[in-house]
Amino acid sequence: LAQKTGLQPADETALIRAAQQGDKDAFEQLVRVYDQSVLRLAMNLLRSPDDAQDVYQEAFLRVYRSLNNFRFDCSFHTWLYRIVTNLCLDQMRKRKTRKEESAALAAGEGELNRMDVLAEERVEGDPQRNLMSREIGQRVNHVLGGLSPRERMVFELRHYQGLRLRRIGEILGTTEEAAKNCLFRATQKMRAALGDLV
Amino acid sequence: MSDTACDKVQSQLGLYLYGELTFDEEERVETHVESCAGCAAALEKEREFHAALDKAENQTSPSLLWESRQNLRDRLELEPQPESAAVLGWWSRFVSSIRPVGGFDGAWMRPAGALALVALGFFGSRLVPSGSMLGGLTSMGITGPQTSRVRFIEPADNGRIQIVLDETRQRTITGELTDQEIRGLLMSAAKDPSDPGLRAETMSLLNADAKSADIRGVLLYALRHDQNAGVRLKALESLRPFANDSEVRTALTEVLLNDNNPGLRAQAIDLLTQDSDDIDRQVIGVLQELMNRESNAYVRQRSQRLLEAVNASAEIY
Question: What does the pLDDT look like over B237-289, one tens digit per residue?
Fold first, then answer.
Protein backbone atom coordinates (compact mmCIF):
# COMPACT_ATOMS: atom_id res chain seq x y z
CA LEU A 1 0.00 0.00 0.00
CA ALA A 2 2.83 2.35 0.87
CA GLN A 3 4.18 1.77 -2.61
CA LYS A 4 0.79 2.53 -4.09
CA THR A 5 0.33 5.78 -2.20
CA GLY A 6 3.98 6.79 -2.48
CA LEU A 7 4.02 7.38 1.27
CA GLN A 8 6.15 5.47 3.74
CA PRO A 9 4.34 4.20 6.85
CA ALA A 10 6.55 6.36 9.08
CA ASP A 11 5.64 9.45 7.03
CA GLU A 12 1.98 8.57 7.26
CA THR A 13 2.18 8.13 11.03
CA ALA A 14 3.88 11.52 11.31
CA LEU A 15 1.18 13.12 9.18
CA ILE A 16 -1.59 11.55 11.27
CA ARG A 17 0.03 12.67 14.51
CA ALA A 18 0.49 16.20 13.19
CA ALA A 19 -3.13 16.28 12.01
CA GLN A 20 -4.25 15.00 15.41
CA GLN A 21 -2.49 17.98 16.93
CA GLY A 22 -4.52 20.34 14.79
CA ASP A 23 -2.18 20.80 11.80
CA LYS A 24 -4.58 21.41 8.92
CA ASP A 25 -1.87 21.22 6.28
CA ALA A 26 -0.93 17.75 7.51
CA PHE A 27 -4.59 16.78 7.33
CA GLU A 28 -4.80 18.07 3.79
CA GLN A 29 -1.73 16.06 2.81
CA LEU A 30 -3.30 13.00 4.35
CA VAL A 31 -6.46 13.60 2.33
CA ARG A 32 -4.40 13.91 -0.84
CA VAL A 33 -2.83 10.50 -0.30
CA TYR A 34 -6.16 8.72 -0.42
CA ASP A 35 -8.77 10.99 -1.89
CA GLN A 36 -8.44 9.97 -5.53
CA SER A 37 -9.13 6.34 -4.73
CA VAL A 38 -11.94 7.31 -2.36
CA LEU A 39 -13.61 9.39 -5.07
CA ARG A 40 -13.09 6.65 -7.65
CA LEU A 41 -14.64 4.05 -5.36
CA ALA A 42 -17.64 6.25 -4.59
CA MET A 43 -18.06 7.10 -8.26
CA ASN A 44 -17.84 3.47 -9.36
CA LEU A 45 -20.34 2.37 -6.76
CA LEU A 46 -22.82 5.22 -6.93
CA ARG A 47 -22.33 6.32 -10.52
CA SER A 48 -23.41 9.85 -9.76
CA PRO A 49 -20.91 12.70 -9.45
CA ASP A 50 -23.11 14.46 -6.89
CA ASP A 51 -23.47 11.40 -4.69
CA ALA A 52 -19.78 10.59 -5.03
CA GLN A 53 -18.88 14.13 -3.95
CA ASP A 54 -21.25 13.88 -0.99
CA VAL A 55 -19.60 10.65 0.15
CA TYR A 56 -16.13 12.14 -0.37
CA GLN A 57 -16.92 15.18 1.73
CA GLU A 58 -18.78 13.35 4.46
CA ALA A 59 -16.07 10.71 4.76
CA PHE A 60 -13.23 13.17 5.17
CA LEU A 61 -15.27 15.35 7.52
CA ARG A 62 -15.88 12.33 9.72
CA VAL A 63 -12.19 11.54 9.61
CA TYR A 64 -11.38 15.13 10.56
CA ARG A 65 -13.82 15.14 13.45
CA SER A 66 -12.77 11.82 14.90
CA LEU A 67 -9.09 11.66 14.01
CA ASN A 68 -8.21 12.02 17.68
CA ASN A 69 -9.98 8.75 18.35
CA PHE A 70 -7.74 6.96 15.85
CA ARG A 71 -5.39 4.88 17.98
CA PHE A 72 -3.39 3.08 15.27
CA ASP A 73 -5.13 -0.22 16.12
CA CYS A 74 -5.48 -0.79 12.37
CA SER A 75 -4.00 0.97 9.36
CA PHE A 76 -5.31 4.42 8.55
CA HIS A 77 -6.33 3.12 5.15
CA THR A 78 -8.53 0.43 6.70
CA TRP A 79 -10.05 2.93 9.11
CA LEU A 80 -10.78 5.43 6.32
CA TYR A 81 -12.21 2.76 4.04
CA ARG A 82 -14.53 1.53 6.81
CA ILE A 83 -16.02 5.00 6.88
CA VAL A 84 -16.19 5.30 3.09
CA THR A 85 -17.65 1.85 2.46
CA ASN A 86 -20.27 2.34 5.18
CA LEU A 87 -21.34 5.61 3.61
CA CYS A 88 -21.49 4.02 0.15
CA LEU A 89 -23.39 0.99 1.40
CA ASP A 90 -25.90 3.25 3.15
CA GLN A 91 -26.35 5.20 -0.04
CA MET A 92 -26.75 2.07 -2.15
CA ARG A 93 -29.26 0.62 0.27
CA LYS A 94 -31.24 3.84 0.18
CA ARG A 95 -31.63 3.43 -3.51
CA LYS A 96 -32.99 0.00 -2.78
CA THR A 97 -34.05 -1.32 -6.10
CA ARG A 98 -32.20 -1.76 -9.29
CA LYS A 99 -35.17 -0.29 -11.05
CA GLU A 100 -34.72 3.05 -9.30
CA GLU A 101 -31.06 3.05 -10.22
CA SER A 102 -31.72 2.27 -13.86
CA ALA A 103 -34.24 5.08 -13.95
CA ALA A 104 -31.65 7.44 -12.51
CA LEU A 105 -29.13 6.39 -15.14
CA ALA A 106 -31.66 6.75 -17.90
CA ALA A 107 -32.45 10.27 -16.69
CA GLY A 108 -29.08 11.11 -18.16
CA GLU A 109 -28.06 14.60 -17.11
CA GLY A 110 -25.52 14.73 -14.35
CA GLU A 111 -25.38 10.99 -14.09
CA LEU A 112 -22.36 9.08 -15.23
CA ASN A 113 -22.59 6.55 -17.95
CA ARG A 114 -19.58 4.29 -17.96
CA MET A 115 -19.81 4.01 -21.70
CA ASP A 116 -19.56 7.76 -22.23
CA VAL A 117 -16.31 7.60 -20.35
CA LEU A 118 -15.21 4.62 -22.38
CA ALA A 119 -16.07 6.33 -25.62
CA GLU A 120 -14.20 9.43 -24.51
CA GLU A 121 -11.21 7.43 -23.39
CA ARG A 122 -10.98 5.30 -26.50
CA VAL A 123 -11.78 7.54 -29.40
CA GLU A 124 -9.12 5.92 -31.45
CA GLY A 125 -9.19 2.25 -32.44
CA ASP A 126 -11.36 0.37 -34.85
CA PRO A 127 -15.14 0.82 -34.79
CA GLN A 128 -15.82 -2.92 -34.38
CA ARG A 129 -13.76 -2.96 -31.20
CA ASN A 130 -15.40 0.19 -29.90
CA LEU A 131 -18.78 -1.36 -30.51
CA MET A 132 -17.73 -4.45 -28.58
CA SER A 133 -16.35 -2.36 -25.73
CA ARG A 134 -19.61 -0.42 -25.62
CA GLU A 135 -21.59 -3.61 -25.48
CA ILE A 136 -19.40 -5.03 -22.70
CA GLY A 137 -19.64 -1.80 -20.74
CA GLN A 138 -23.41 -1.78 -21.01
CA ARG A 139 -23.58 -5.37 -19.82
CA VAL A 140 -21.20 -4.63 -16.94
CA ASN A 141 -23.37 -1.67 -15.94
CA HIS A 142 -26.45 -3.79 -16.11
CA VAL A 143 -25.09 -6.67 -14.09
CA LEU A 144 -23.50 -4.37 -11.49
CA GLY A 145 -26.95 -2.95 -10.85
CA GLY A 146 -28.16 -6.48 -10.13
CA LEU A 147 -25.51 -7.36 -7.54
CA SER A 148 -26.24 -6.96 -3.86
CA PRO A 149 -24.57 -3.91 -2.29
CA ARG A 150 -22.03 -6.11 -0.50
CA GLU A 151 -21.22 -8.18 -3.60
CA ARG A 152 -20.73 -5.01 -5.53
CA MET A 153 -18.59 -3.50 -2.82
CA VAL A 154 -16.31 -6.54 -2.61
CA PHE A 155 -16.01 -6.68 -6.39
CA GLU A 156 -15.11 -2.99 -6.65
CA LEU A 157 -12.60 -3.20 -3.82
CA ARG A 158 -10.93 -6.30 -5.24
CA HIS A 159 -11.07 -5.70 -8.97
CA TYR A 160 -10.76 -1.96 -9.33
CA GLN A 161 -9.09 -0.91 -6.09
CA GLY A 162 -6.81 -3.95 -6.00
CA LEU A 163 -7.25 -4.65 -2.27
CA ARG A 164 -6.57 -8.11 -0.90
CA LEU A 165 -9.56 -10.10 0.36
CA ARG A 166 -8.12 -10.17 3.87
CA ARG A 167 -8.08 -6.40 4.01
CA ILE A 168 -11.53 -6.21 2.42
CA GLY A 169 -12.76 -8.47 5.21
CA GLU A 170 -11.20 -6.13 7.80
CA ILE A 171 -12.81 -3.11 6.18
CA LEU A 172 -16.26 -4.65 5.93
CA GLY A 173 -16.09 -6.28 9.33
CA THR A 174 -16.27 -9.81 7.99
CA THR A 175 -13.99 -12.75 7.40
CA GLU A 176 -11.68 -13.25 4.45
CA GLU A 177 -13.71 -16.34 3.59
CA ALA A 178 -16.98 -14.41 3.49
CA ALA A 179 -15.38 -11.76 1.29
CA LYS A 180 -14.09 -14.52 -0.99
CA ASN A 181 -17.58 -16.00 -1.32
CA CYS A 182 -18.99 -12.57 -2.11
CA LEU A 183 -16.38 -12.02 -4.81
CA PHE A 184 -17.02 -15.49 -6.22
CA ARG A 185 -20.77 -14.84 -6.50
CA ALA A 186 -20.20 -11.41 -8.03
CA THR A 187 -17.79 -12.68 -10.69
CA GLN A 188 -20.06 -15.64 -11.48
CA LYS A 189 -22.89 -13.23 -12.21
CA MET A 190 -20.62 -10.98 -14.26
CA ARG A 191 -19.27 -13.94 -16.21
CA ALA A 192 -22.75 -15.16 -16.97
CA ALA A 193 -23.71 -11.71 -18.25
CA LEU A 194 -20.62 -11.27 -20.43
CA GLY A 195 -20.19 -14.90 -21.39
CA ASP A 196 -20.91 -14.57 -25.09
CA LEU A 197 -18.89 -11.38 -25.51
CA VAL A 198 -15.51 -12.46 -24.20
CA MET B 1 -8.20 -35.37 -16.87
CA SER B 2 -11.26 -36.12 -14.78
CA ASP B 3 -14.24 -33.80 -15.03
CA THR B 4 -14.21 -33.37 -11.27
CA ALA B 5 -10.60 -32.16 -11.31
CA CYS B 6 -11.32 -29.81 -14.22
CA ASP B 7 -14.47 -28.45 -12.54
CA LYS B 8 -12.56 -27.72 -9.37
CA VAL B 9 -9.71 -26.00 -11.21
CA GLN B 10 -12.06 -23.98 -13.40
CA SER B 11 -14.01 -22.78 -10.36
CA GLN B 12 -10.74 -21.46 -8.94
CA LEU B 13 -9.48 -19.63 -12.02
CA GLY B 14 -10.99 -16.29 -11.00
CA LEU B 15 -9.36 -16.34 -7.58
CA TYR B 16 -6.16 -17.62 -9.21
CA LEU B 17 -5.97 -14.51 -11.39
CA TYR B 18 -6.67 -12.31 -8.38
CA GLY B 19 -3.79 -14.04 -6.59
CA GLU B 20 -6.12 -15.09 -3.80
CA LEU B 21 -5.42 -18.83 -3.72
CA THR B 22 -3.15 -20.42 -1.15
CA PHE B 23 0.29 -21.50 -2.30
CA ASP B 24 -0.81 -25.15 -2.52
CA GLU B 25 -4.00 -24.34 -4.41
CA GLU B 26 -2.06 -22.19 -6.84
CA GLU B 27 0.42 -25.01 -7.41
CA ARG B 28 -2.40 -27.44 -8.13
CA VAL B 29 -4.05 -25.08 -10.62
CA GLU B 30 -0.80 -24.40 -12.46
CA THR B 31 0.19 -28.06 -12.64
CA HIS B 32 -3.24 -29.00 -13.89
CA VAL B 33 -3.43 -26.25 -16.51
CA GLU B 34 -0.04 -27.21 -17.93
CA SER B 35 -1.32 -30.65 -18.79
CA CYS B 36 -4.97 -29.92 -19.63
CA ALA B 37 -5.79 -28.12 -22.87
CA GLY B 38 -9.44 -27.56 -21.83
CA CYS B 39 -8.49 -25.81 -18.59
CA ALA B 40 -5.72 -23.85 -20.34
CA ALA B 41 -8.36 -22.51 -22.74
CA ALA B 42 -10.65 -21.75 -19.79
CA LEU B 43 -7.82 -19.82 -18.13
CA GLU B 44 -7.29 -17.80 -21.30
CA LYS B 45 -11.01 -17.02 -21.40
CA GLU B 46 -10.90 -15.98 -17.74
CA ARG B 47 -8.04 -13.59 -18.56
CA GLU B 48 -10.11 -12.05 -21.36
CA PHE B 49 -13.01 -11.72 -18.94
CA HIS B 50 -10.81 -9.86 -16.44
CA ALA B 51 -9.46 -7.62 -19.19
CA ALA B 52 -13.01 -6.81 -20.31
CA LEU B 53 -13.90 -5.81 -16.76
CA ASP B 54 -10.79 -3.63 -16.61
CA LYS B 55 -11.99 -1.73 -19.63
CA ALA B 56 -15.33 -0.96 -18.02
CA GLU B 57 -13.76 0.92 -15.13
CA ASN B 58 -14.75 4.50 -14.45
CA GLN B 59 -12.23 7.28 -14.69
CA THR B 60 -13.03 10.17 -12.42
CA SER B 61 -12.45 13.46 -14.13
CA PRO B 62 -9.74 15.77 -12.78
CA SER B 63 -12.31 18.54 -12.50
CA LEU B 64 -14.51 16.39 -10.24
CA LEU B 65 -11.54 15.68 -8.00
CA TRP B 66 -10.55 19.31 -7.95
CA GLU B 67 -14.09 20.39 -7.15
CA SER B 68 -14.35 17.80 -4.37
CA ARG B 69 -11.11 19.01 -2.82
CA GLN B 70 -12.19 22.61 -3.05
CA ASN B 71 -15.58 21.89 -1.46
CA LEU B 72 -13.91 19.93 1.32
CA ARG B 73 -11.45 22.72 1.96
CA ASP B 74 -14.26 25.28 2.11
CA ARG B 75 -16.22 23.03 4.42
CA LEU B 76 -13.24 22.49 6.71
CA GLU B 77 -12.81 26.25 7.02
CA LEU B 78 -16.23 26.31 8.70
CA GLU B 79 -15.45 23.31 10.84
CA PRO B 80 -14.39 24.11 14.40
CA GLN B 81 -11.08 22.61 15.43
CA PRO B 82 -11.92 19.31 17.11
CA GLU B 83 -11.84 20.29 20.79
CA SER B 84 -9.47 17.62 21.91
CA ALA B 85 -6.99 18.41 19.11
CA ALA B 86 -5.70 21.62 20.63
CA VAL B 87 -5.46 20.06 24.09
CA LEU B 88 -3.87 16.92 22.73
CA GLY B 89 -1.38 19.08 20.86
CA TRP B 90 0.44 20.76 23.70
CA TRP B 91 -0.42 18.09 26.26
CA SER B 92 0.93 15.17 24.27
CA ARG B 93 4.06 17.13 23.42
CA PHE B 94 4.52 17.94 27.09
CA VAL B 95 3.86 14.37 28.21
CA SER B 96 6.19 12.96 25.58
CA SER B 97 8.86 15.43 26.65
CA ILE B 98 8.83 14.06 30.23
CA ARG B 99 8.18 10.44 29.28
CA PRO B 100 11.00 7.98 30.09
CA VAL B 101 13.15 7.45 27.05
CA GLY B 102 14.92 4.26 25.93
CA GLY B 103 16.47 2.25 28.75
CA PHE B 104 16.27 4.99 31.37
CA ASP B 105 13.51 4.75 33.90
CA GLY B 106 13.08 8.49 33.72
CA ALA B 107 12.56 8.87 37.48
CA TRP B 108 15.04 11.73 37.57
CA MET B 109 12.91 13.57 35.07
CA ARG B 110 9.80 13.60 37.24
CA PRO B 111 10.80 16.52 39.46
CA ALA B 112 11.70 18.41 36.33
CA GLY B 113 8.28 17.57 34.93
CA ALA B 114 6.58 18.74 38.12
CA LEU B 115 8.57 21.96 38.02
CA ALA B 116 7.61 22.43 34.40
CA LEU B 117 3.93 22.04 35.35
CA VAL B 118 4.24 24.71 38.03
CA ALA B 119 5.98 27.01 35.59
CA LEU B 120 3.31 26.27 33.02
CA GLY B 121 0.63 27.28 35.50
CA PHE B 122 2.46 30.48 36.38
CA PHE B 123 3.17 31.61 32.86
CA GLY B 124 -0.16 30.29 31.65
CA SER B 125 -1.89 32.63 34.06
CA ARG B 126 0.02 35.50 32.47
CA LEU B 127 -1.38 34.71 29.05
CA VAL B 128 -4.95 35.78 29.31
CA PRO B 129 -7.79 35.84 26.82
CA SER B 130 -8.80 39.42 26.18
CA GLY B 131 -12.46 38.87 27.10
CA SER B 132 -11.92 37.57 30.61
CA MET B 133 -9.11 39.91 31.51
CA LEU B 134 -10.44 43.11 30.10
CA GLY B 135 -14.01 42.89 31.28
CA GLY B 136 -13.38 45.45 33.99
CA LEU B 137 -11.13 47.73 31.98
CA THR B 138 -13.58 49.20 29.54
CA SER B 139 -13.32 52.49 31.41
CA MET B 140 -9.82 52.76 29.99
CA GLY B 141 -11.35 52.92 26.54
CA ILE B 142 -10.23 49.55 25.31
CA THR B 143 -12.88 48.35 22.88
CA GLY B 144 -13.17 46.04 19.91
CA PRO B 145 -11.68 42.61 19.27
CA GLN B 146 -8.12 42.28 20.48
CA THR B 147 -5.63 39.93 22.06
CA SER B 148 -3.64 40.92 25.13
CA ARG B 149 -0.59 39.64 26.93
CA VAL B 150 0.62 40.73 30.36
CA ARG B 151 4.12 42.04 29.77
CA PHE B 152 5.02 43.60 33.11
CA ILE B 153 3.55 43.92 36.61
CA GLU B 154 4.67 46.16 39.47
CA PRO B 155 3.20 47.67 42.63
CA ALA B 156 2.01 51.26 42.23
CA ASP B 157 1.21 53.91 44.84
CA ASN B 158 -1.57 53.49 47.40
CA GLY B 159 -1.60 49.68 47.22
CA ARG B 160 -2.61 49.72 43.55
CA ILE B 161 -1.06 47.51 40.88
CA GLN B 162 0.33 48.64 37.56
CA ILE B 163 0.10 46.20 34.67
CA VAL B 164 1.65 46.70 31.25
CA LEU B 165 -0.17 44.89 28.41
CA ASP B 166 1.00 44.05 24.91
CA GLU B 167 -2.05 44.29 22.70
CA THR B 168 -2.91 43.41 19.14
CA ARG B 169 -6.07 45.05 17.94
CA GLN B 170 -8.20 44.48 14.87
CA ARG B 171 -8.90 47.43 12.64
CA THR B 172 -11.33 47.48 9.73
CA ILE B 173 -10.65 49.55 6.69
CA THR B 174 -12.62 49.78 3.47
CA GLY B 175 -11.72 51.26 0.13
CA GLU B 176 -11.32 50.74 -3.59
CA LEU B 177 -8.77 48.46 -5.17
CA THR B 178 -7.15 51.60 -6.55
CA ASP B 179 -6.46 52.94 -3.02
CA GLN B 180 -2.79 52.52 -2.27
CA GLU B 181 -3.31 51.24 1.29
CA ILE B 182 -5.88 48.65 0.20
CA ARG B 183 -3.68 47.63 -2.70
CA GLY B 184 -0.59 47.28 -0.50
CA LEU B 185 -2.46 45.19 2.06
CA LEU B 186 -3.87 42.91 -0.64
CA MET B 187 -0.41 42.43 -2.10
CA SER B 188 0.81 41.46 1.33
CA ALA B 189 -2.17 39.13 1.98
CA ALA B 190 -1.49 37.44 -1.37
CA LYS B 191 1.73 36.09 0.08
CA ASP B 192 0.58 35.38 3.66
CA PRO B 193 2.06 31.93 4.18
CA SER B 194 -0.21 31.05 7.10
CA ASP B 195 -3.59 31.34 5.47
CA PRO B 196 -4.35 29.79 2.06
CA GLY B 197 -8.02 30.81 2.37
CA LEU B 198 -6.94 34.46 2.67
CA ARG B 199 -4.63 34.10 -0.32
CA ALA B 200 -7.37 32.51 -2.44
CA GLU B 201 -9.82 35.28 -1.56
CA THR B 202 -7.17 37.87 -2.42
CA MET B 203 -6.59 36.28 -5.84
CA SER B 204 -10.30 36.67 -6.60
CA LEU B 205 -10.32 40.32 -5.52
CA LEU B 206 -7.22 41.17 -7.55
CA ASN B 207 -9.09 39.92 -10.59
CA ALA B 208 -10.79 43.32 -10.85
CA ASP B 209 -7.53 45.03 -11.81
CA ALA B 210 -5.51 42.24 -13.39
CA LYS B 211 -4.64 44.52 -16.29
CA SER B 212 -2.20 46.40 -14.02
CA ALA B 213 1.33 45.11 -14.26
CA ASP B 214 1.91 44.97 -10.50
CA ILE B 215 -1.25 42.97 -9.83
CA ARG B 216 -0.63 40.69 -12.76
CA GLY B 217 2.85 40.09 -11.36
CA VAL B 218 1.32 38.97 -8.06
CA LEU B 219 -1.12 36.66 -9.86
CA LEU B 220 1.64 35.14 -11.97
CA TYR B 221 3.80 34.61 -8.91
CA ALA B 222 0.94 32.81 -7.14
CA LEU B 223 0.20 30.70 -10.21
CA ARG B 224 3.82 29.59 -10.37
CA HIS B 225 4.77 29.30 -6.72
CA ASP B 226 1.83 29.09 -4.31
CA GLN B 227 1.85 25.80 -2.38
CA ASN B 228 -1.92 25.60 -2.41
CA ALA B 229 -3.65 24.35 -5.57
CA GLY B 230 -6.85 26.26 -4.75
CA VAL B 231 -4.90 29.54 -4.65
CA ARG B 232 -3.13 28.69 -7.90
CA LEU B 233 -6.47 28.00 -9.53
CA LYS B 234 -7.92 31.32 -8.35
CA ALA B 235 -4.85 33.06 -9.78
CA LEU B 236 -5.30 31.23 -13.07
CA GLU B 237 -8.96 32.25 -13.22
CA SER B 238 -8.03 35.88 -12.67
CA LEU B 239 -5.50 35.64 -15.49
CA ARG B 240 -8.00 34.05 -17.86
CA PRO B 241 -8.78 37.28 -19.80
CA PHE B 242 -5.06 37.67 -20.49
CA ALA B 243 -4.45 34.22 -21.93
CA ASN B 244 -2.95 35.78 -25.05
CA ASP B 245 -0.39 37.79 -23.11
CA SER B 246 3.05 36.27 -23.69
CA GLU B 247 4.08 36.21 -20.02
CA VAL B 248 0.79 34.62 -19.02
CA ARG B 249 1.22 32.01 -21.77
CA THR B 250 4.70 31.23 -20.55
CA ALA B 251 3.36 30.73 -17.01
CA LEU B 252 0.56 28.52 -18.36
CA THR B 253 3.03 26.30 -20.20
CA GLU B 254 4.99 25.98 -16.96
CA VAL B 255 1.81 24.92 -15.18
CA LEU B 256 1.10 22.41 -17.92
CA LEU B 257 4.53 20.86 -17.63
CA ASN B 258 5.24 21.18 -13.93
CA ASP B 259 2.12 21.60 -11.80
CA ASN B 260 1.30 18.45 -9.85
CA ASN B 261 -2.41 19.16 -9.88
CA PRO B 262 -4.22 17.57 -12.88
CA GLY B 263 -7.18 19.94 -12.51
CA LEU B 264 -4.88 22.91 -13.01
CA ARG B 265 -3.11 21.27 -15.93
CA ALA B 266 -6.50 20.64 -17.53
CA GLN B 267 -7.46 24.31 -17.10
CA ALA B 268 -4.08 25.43 -18.43
CA ILE B 269 -4.33 23.36 -21.59
CA ASP B 270 -7.86 24.64 -22.21
CA LEU B 271 -6.71 28.23 -21.85
CA LEU B 272 -3.59 27.85 -23.95
CA THR B 273 -5.48 26.25 -26.78
CA GLN B 274 -8.83 28.01 -26.62
CA ASP B 275 -8.21 29.28 -30.12
CA SER B 276 -7.34 25.95 -31.75
CA ASP B 277 -6.84 27.57 -35.18
CA ASP B 278 -3.98 29.64 -33.89
CA ILE B 279 -1.75 27.53 -31.69
CA ASP B 280 1.79 28.86 -31.61
CA ARG B 281 4.94 26.81 -32.01
CA GLN B 282 5.85 27.07 -28.34
CA VAL B 283 2.56 25.45 -27.37
CA ILE B 284 2.92 22.73 -30.00
CA GLY B 285 6.30 21.86 -28.50
CA VAL B 286 4.77 21.70 -25.03
CA LEU B 287 1.93 19.49 -26.27
CA GLN B 288 4.43 17.13 -27.87
CA GLU B 289 6.39 16.96 -24.65
CA LEU B 290 3.19 16.32 -22.73
CA MET B 291 2.54 13.23 -24.85
CA ASN B 292 5.71 11.81 -23.36
CA ARG B 293 5.18 12.64 -19.72
CA GLU B 294 1.54 13.45 -18.96
CA SER B 295 -0.19 10.88 -16.77
CA ASN B 296 -3.64 12.41 -16.80
CA ALA B 297 -5.98 10.93 -19.40
CA TYR B 298 -7.93 14.12 -20.10
CA VAL B 299 -4.85 16.28 -20.62
CA ARG B 300 -3.19 13.64 -22.81
CA GLN B 301 -6.28 13.19 -24.89
CA ARG B 302 -6.83 16.90 -25.35
CA SER B 303 -3.19 17.31 -26.22
CA GLN B 304 -3.34 14.55 -28.80
CA ARG B 305 -6.50 15.93 -30.38
CA LEU B 306 -4.99 19.38 -30.68
CA LEU B 307 -1.83 18.04 -32.24
CA GLU B 308 -3.94 16.11 -34.73
CA ALA B 309 -5.98 19.25 -35.42
CA VAL B 310 -2.86 21.21 -36.39
CA ASN B 311 -1.39 18.19 -38.21
CA ALA B 312 1.56 18.03 -35.85
CA SER B 313 3.17 14.82 -34.81
CA ALA B 314 2.44 13.45 -31.34
CA GLU B 315 6.10 12.39 -31.22
CA ILE B 316 8.71 14.67 -29.73
CA TYR B 317 11.81 15.32 -31.78
Answer: 889 888 888 888 888 888 888 888 888 888 888 888 877 666 777 788 888 88
Q: Residue A108 — φ and ψ, nearest 5°?
A: 85, -80
Enumerate the residues of chain B whose CB falls inside 8 A of the CB of residue A137: 55-56
> Does B76 contact A117 at a Cβ distance shorter than 8 Å?
no
Q: Which residues contact A155 (CB under 8 A, 6 or more apart)?
A: A144, A147, A182, A183, A186, A187, A190
Residue A101 backbone phi and psi in degrees, to 5: -65, -45
Q: State whether B18 and A121 contact (CB < 8 Å).
A: no
Half-sphere exposure of B196 (CA within 13 A, CB side): 18
Question: Is A34 in the B-facing interface, judged by CB distances under 8 Å?
Answer: no
What's the half-sphere exposure (Cβ side, CA atoms, 13 Å) at B213?
0
Q: Number of Cβ pairs closer than 8 Å across A and B?
A: 122
Put simply, whether A185 touches B (Cβ < 8 Å) is: no
Q: How far apart are CA B234 and CA A76, in angstroms?
A: 32
Express each pLDDT in B158-179 by its tens digit.
Answer: 788 878 776 766 778 888 888 8
Q: Is the pTM of this model over 0.95?
A: no
Q: How many helices (H) and strands (E) does chain B have?
A: 15, 2
Q: Which of A23, A58, A68 should we substitute to test contact with B (largest number of B Cβ atoms within 10 Å)?
A: A68
**How many helices and strands, by DSSP H and E, does chain A display?**
11, 0
